[in-house]
Amino acid sequence: MSLRLSTVILPHRRWHEGGRAAWTRAEQLGFHTAYTYDHLSWRTFRDGPWFGAVPTLTAAATVTERLRLGTLVTSPNFRHPVTLAKELISLDDISGGRVTLGIGAGGTGFDATALGQEPWTPRERADRFAEFVPLLDRLLSEDAVSYDGDFYSAHEARNIPGCVQRPRLPFAVAATGPRGLRLAARYGEAWVTTGDPKLFENGTPEQSVQAIRGQAEKLADTCAEIGRDVTGLDKVLLTGFTPDRNGPLQSLGAFVDFAGRHAELGFTELVLHWPIPDSPFATDEKVFEQIAIEAPAELR
User: Fold this and answer.
1) Which of 86, 205, 255, 300 has the most CB atoms around its CB within 10 Å?
2) Would you give the DSSP letter of residue 120?
3) Model pTM?
4) CA 17, CA 35: separation in Å to the nearest integer?
5) CB neighbours of residue 140 within 10 Å
6) pLDDT (tens digit, 9 = 90+) per residue, 185-241?
């Protein structure tokens, strides 16, 4: 399978002041999917403009035709499966079945406290995620769902007519720990990683590749435990969080080398951050577009 290139467009610009243009340009450049972050605010962008993921993707769906759309990632930090399912079914309908749900357990950032709660511990996040994903799977696949869990409940929740994509829109599950990998193996159409965060500051690209290889091997073992062929699961790397940082986007050659190393690990999709000046994702737009246009042929 050829390595697909996708992008993630942060929702930091007003729609009529560059927001719309980025999504239409992503389709023109031939990206497989354009994702956005599903946060209430995020890191250094907290005190600036930041728009909601689902309305942004809905708007993007109306100005594109072929481009797949998705979140990278949605988490339980401020989402409930019942209301999220209704929004996703609506988005899948408006887009004509072009939505992928990137989903993860969440972290300790601003989303974790925006609703007034104390941040959950890693175990609490894992416990909620283990209940969130199976319930969301049912809500997107069944006409009516009732459920009473430790964290989430649904009472005769109706989701007619369901997703355009059957039996439901695909899940791309972000996970590196044992419980998350089990969810990816059981419910995911794709698995997502950003690499090993412990290596970001002081690690080397070579150490990162080794760490990601280890993650992929754990995923394969987890799939084998439930009788699933891991080769049927797409493997997605969200770039920009390995020790390479933005280095692979400095030239076409640098990117092809980076992409080739990860393709050898079995990755089927690399996601590149859309350039944002004066940010951690500052990249030469001309080089970025050259990579989008020319790299796929180099990687076949």
Assistant:
1) 255
2) P
3) 0.97
4) 19
5) 24
6) 999 999 999 999 999 999 999 999 999 999 999 999 999 999 999 999 999 999 999
